Amino acid sequence: MRVFKYLFFALLFLVVAFYAYGFFFLEDEVQVSRSVTIDRPAKKVFKAVNSMHHFNKWSPWAKLDPEAKYDYEGPEFGVGSYMSWTGNEEVGSGRQTIIESVPNERVKTKLYFDGQGDEPSYATYLIKDLGNQSEVTWVFDADFNGDILGRYFGMMMDDMLGPEYQKGLNNLKQLVESQPVYDFSGFSTENVQPQSILYVSTSANTNQDVAPIIQAAYDEITTFMFANNIEFAGQPIAITRSWENDVWEFDAAIPVNISSIEGDTGDVMLGQTYAGTAVKYVQMGSYDQGEASYALMDAYLVENELQINGDLWEVYVNDPQNVAEADIITHFYQPIK
Fold it and tell me: What is the value of pTM for the model shown?
């Protein structure tokens, strides 16, 4: 009996010591963090982490359970972007929501893990702008609020979670650095005023020489203008209505200072250009760059999360017959919301 008595008091001592050590020496608040340097500007990194809908593109847990189920709610980017998941033992289940988003600096999320109580944890992405590079720190914060067992669990968190965070940051680095780098130096945003235009609607196959078709449309307009004593009020314009399957449907237009036209005008019509906010791109050189400029415009809109608000148009600033090919200037305008 004496042996059992000693065993009982020894066990009691261990239990008391366990809880006393946890209460007096272990912290409620635990933080795990890892960092990586990415060879891209802060803006591109911010976009990659500012969405729960795209988290699995670089998540360290995404491949651990191919059968895991994910649900997404809220906006694609920014505060309110939400993801929940249910997976195997390695992935677990829970939900995560962006609760704070500071452009190019910080994104903070609230995390709930099923089976681990009602208290949330927090994950934060801190982005340090280094010019053409960015330092990204992924920080996990948990508060056990006096839970002694949780405090002991917190002692192991850095060893458990830290390597996964580093793996995720390496995935993020690979993802962001694999994205193309564009030169957006020729872009600006302007508030454009409406112009009255005379225009002819036409189309051309971009696999062939479109110059004769464009010239024929402008010849028809200028013939009408000379016959009716209408003066030019700006450089020629081409308004893109559609560009699909190598077919360019557009309006060839010339700005004028008139408010109405009468009589038989043939294919020539009177209209007005867009008024409002537009992205402007200045193209220098051959008109053959047009398709590449359209693609660059699309990339700029995506990069800056801008929404299209009308048809893109081109302004032919100078006459290619009077300048060298390298000096040809074309302005592209894309209306945005």
Answer: 0.66
